Queue: 2 jobs
Job 1
Amino acid sequence: MKAMVLAAGLGLRMRPLTLLRAKPALPVLNRPLIHWTLELLRRHGVTDVVINLHHLPATVRRVVGDGRTLGLRVSYSFERKILGTAGGPRKVRRFFGDEPFLLVNGDVLFDFDLSDLVRRHAASRARATLALKAHRRVEGYGGIVTGPGGFVRALAGLPHPVKGRPLLFTGVHVLDPDLLDRLPAGPSDSVRDLYAPLVAEGQRLLGVRVSGAWYDFGSPPLYLASQLSMMSSGFRGAGAARLVHPEARIHPRARVTRSVVGAGAAVGEGAVVSGSVLWEGTQVDGGARVSGSIVATGGVVGERESVERTVVLPAGKGAKQRVALSETGRKA
């Protein structure tokens, strides 16, 4: 089976982290975010994946390569202009051939039974099948309302609002590739330009309520909170108390709790790190305090310095090295 991972977005809400790397290349529990997705795709029978790129494309290519180390064949589609969630797949229409394919967002992390989703799609004879979940903030994502048999009646109020309890569209779907032939070349959106018109025409669009974890990495606060939650739940074997890379250097008299520490990171004597994520190659000097923060590669927390709810960036010409989490998502 084939799949596409959407990885071309600018990641504006994730700034300043996405000034350093594309969002799918950001480290999550000491692995690139996109690795978690590709691993799950392979586990459910996917053999070939295309990834679209635009923002900092080299950072994604660097961590994925040709996919062989992940057991996949990976190719890329570079977009000089971002084509959107439907325009991106439309550009590589030939890649999919004639069989249904999986389309997934590259900026979320999930653990669904994709094989069951594909089976449900085939059995329903739907044109597309969307993975849906209950979510306490579903309105913030644009809810999907289904009717009898699970068939979609409205997507974010399109083609028209209908009554019913909305579910979250997880950004994971199976679709028949000939649907892409409906779209003109250029930018387009899967919900607005593809799925809403299908529903308006009375065609079958299935919504399947899935179980399993789903984490949003839409902003630095969510990026931090999601990783702490993943550790607490033991996501795919993650440590509950802390996750320290074997190549990290933590002084015996330092204290690290409920945090992720990357390869080559150094935490000095008497330092305290709690509820934080330290990327690879970071430095927390002796006596420093790091709480509820993200330290990016090259970032340094100096001796006895204290940072809380902060993104620490590497030194650079004209770059702001400390950004409060509450101020993220803006141009740094």
Note: The chain has seven helices and 27 strands.
Job 2
Amino acid sequence: MIPVAFDYVRAESADEALAALAEHGDDAKLMAGGHSLLPMMKLRLAYPAVIVDIGRLSDLSYINDAGDYLAIGALTRHRDVEISPVVAEHAPLLAHATSHVGDPQVRHRGTIGGSLAHADAAADHPSVFLAMGASVIARGPDGEREISGADLFSGFLESSLAPTEMITEVRVPKATGQGWSFQKFNRRAQDWAIVGASVQQTNGPAQVALVNMHPTPTRAAAVEAALGGGATAIEAAEQAAEGLEPSSDLNAGVDYRRHLARVLTRRGLTEAGIA
């Protein structure tokens, strides 16, 4: 389909992009790689009056070691995250999961900040973001604020970002030498996950987040609680679907998704070395 007509603004800086958002408010949408926004526009699920293109802002593309965490610019391409030695050493879950995002064309154009801002529960990065306890830096007219994973995703394809804010940086706590796993079940390599699971071992109980098991990206709270209470990985994995509301579509029904969540969580916990 053809999108609704819109005006196009090419931002030359983050400040210029923020000024455009302040001017147009809810009528404007940011576009970086465009892999999420453009298909929605073609389906008439989104119809912004103004597109603010931020894809050329090179100052928001970087991967830095910031001590206890990795600072990743919001416009860093998936491919750069996938092949980064720093990410591979300190956040291997993120590097591995990124290698499973779409296909090479998507990974060379899509951005980590765009994936998180889109807030799609079927995408890979939000689950990794939650499992690793990451946060984002959002910049707006009132300055910058840090938003945790628990606070970023507010509804179906909705985030807590204000219409006049943009993500400028993703902060991922280091997990050097910790157990991890990314499990993804799909029909073809480039497809969205029917169900997925991200597992990250920490100094305390493991953190588990699921893909495509709820209207919003979500942690598997029942699994984490069971592990914290002394349950084995097999016992805890049986709680993977508790409290969640998976959807039914052409690829899978609700019961099948619940089954996959238990299976993939068990595999993930085992691979991460969690007994």
Note: The chain has three domains: 7-53, 58-173, 180-271.
